[in-house]
Amino acid sequence: MNTRRILLVEDEKHLAEGIMLNLEAEGFETVWAADGNTAMDQYHAGRFDLILLDIMLPGIDGLEVCRRIRAELGTVPILFLTARDRLDDKKEGLAIGADDYITKPFDIEELILRMKAIFRRQTWLASEEISGAIYAFPGGSIDFRKFEARTSSGTHRLSNKECLLLKLFSEHPGEVLSRNMILDGVWGYNAYPSSRTVDNFILRFRKYFEPDPARPIYFHTEFGTGYRFTPQGETTND
């Protein structure tokens, strides 16, 4: 198994050194960047399996680094290291494409557990046991390796979270997926995207796959319950 490469973006040198020491003891290869601009340079220079990204950075902050990576269609998982404990700040990070966050001060064991949870979700996304590398239904096809959806409206580049959620739907056709099931499978147990965040994903899927997004036949909202994917199509009152 190849060693996982981690990009650590943290301006506090002593904290960064402590994190790197512990990650290397766990077998990870770690590259350090002390500011947002250096982080972008390192990101462009190499391949990483995960970015540990502080929000409060000199130069461009961590939120902007995340925005730029996602704007470049980068799918590398991002875990925010943040001193901010306001729920709105955490929701903003998740909304712009972060996979998880941990609030300072944190226990290094919890950080490693969260990293491993992200890697498990990525391994599940790459697995082909149920839906295969390419999942096809009448509304289009999803390539989980290339992060692409091909539909009658064209080819759409998918984010990591979009792929994870589509993978979850493809493995549970016709089932109502509760918010907790989606939370655990796509975001992780301790992340808190709002119901509106998940609704926005469903709206995007409707634009990609539905013949008429205003009258969905594939991606349904079950109000007060969760969400449902019907690959063969079903008319509802959504």
How would you explain this protein's 3D organization?
This protein has two domains: 122 residues, Response regulator (Rossmann fold); 96 residues, Arc Repressor Mutant, subunit A, CATH 1.10.10.10. It is 40% helix and 21% strand. The chain has eight helices and twelve strands. The mean pLDDT is 90.
What characteristic shape results from the CA principal axes?
elongated
> What is the strand arrangement across the widest sheet?
2-1-3-4-5
Structural class: alpha/beta
The counted number of beta strands is 12
Which series of helices and strands comes N to C?
A: EHEHEHEHEHEEEEHEHHEE
Low-confidence stretches: none
CATH superfamily of the largest domain: Response regulator
Return the CATH architecture of the largest domain. 3-Layer(aba) Sandwich
The main β sheet shows up as: 5 strands, parallel
- Approximate helicity band: 40-55%
Question: What is the rounded Rg?
Answer: 18 Å
Strand content: 15-25%
What count of helical segments does DSSP give? Answer: 8
- CATH class label of the largest domain: Alpha Beta
Number of structural units classed as domains: 2
CATH level-3 fold name of the largest domain: Rossmann fold
Distance between the termini: 46 Å
What is the mean predicted local confidence, pLDDT? 90
